[in-house]
Amino acid sequence: MGSGEWRLAIQEALAGVAEAQAHLRTPTAEALESTWPNLERATGALHRLAECLRAAPAGGPEPHCALESLRQEVTRLRSLLEGAAALRLGWAQRLYATACGYTPQGQPAMPQVARRLSLQG
Hints:
By secondary structure, the chain is mainly α. The protein has one domain (3-100). Helix content is 74%, strand content 0%. It has helices spanning 3-24, 29-55, 61-100.
């Protein structure tokens, strides 16, 4: 496998990560859902990159610079995903607090399960 193949794999991974980042800049439920195809694309590219590098390890500083750039973008994506998850959890806690009140410890209460007893004679 030539150097062109690992370059293409890194470019494709970077493109998938960049598209996922763009979706997550507005952390709605739809944006979170729409990141999956981009993340799958990036994951496939990373698998191909690993195969390329196992078959013919790339020497010199160029692959290391490209991989460092990819690592930085994945770190940014991770931050966006964590922020979106925290936002969604915050909204869920507010919903629970609005619907169920708070516990004596000041935490949002969980919904109570309705209990029923049915007897037939």
